[in-house]
Amino acid sequence: MKQNKAFSELPVADSSKNYTFFENVWDVVRQIPKGRVTTYGAIANYLGLKSSARMVGYAMNACFHVRPKVPAQRVVNRNGMLSGKAHFATPTLMEELLQKEGIMVESDKILNFEKVFWDPAIELA
DNA sequence: AGTATGACTCATT
DNA sequence: AAATGAGCCATAC
Question: CA–CA distance from A123 to each of A28, A36, A38, A42, A57 (Å)?
Answer without folding.
Answer: 11, 12, 11, 11, 21
